[in-house]
Amino acid sequence: MSVDTQDMEIVHRVLRRESRRLMELVAAVTPGDTARAKVIAEHFRSRPSTSRNRSGPPWATTW
User: Above 80 in pLDDT, residue 48?
Assistant: First the structure.
C-alpha cells in the first residue's frame, strides 16, 4: 500500500489553522454574551476530534 504523507501534512495544517481560528472566536466573545458563547461552544463540540479516535501515533499506520 502506498501512502502519500503530504495528504497527512495538509490535514494537520488545516486542523491547526481551524483550531487557531476557533481560539480567536472564543477570545472575541464579549463577557456576558451567552448567546454567542453557546453558538461557538456548539461549533466546537461538532468538530471532529481525531485525537479521541486515534489508537496510536499517526505514523503507526503510515509506515
Answer: no
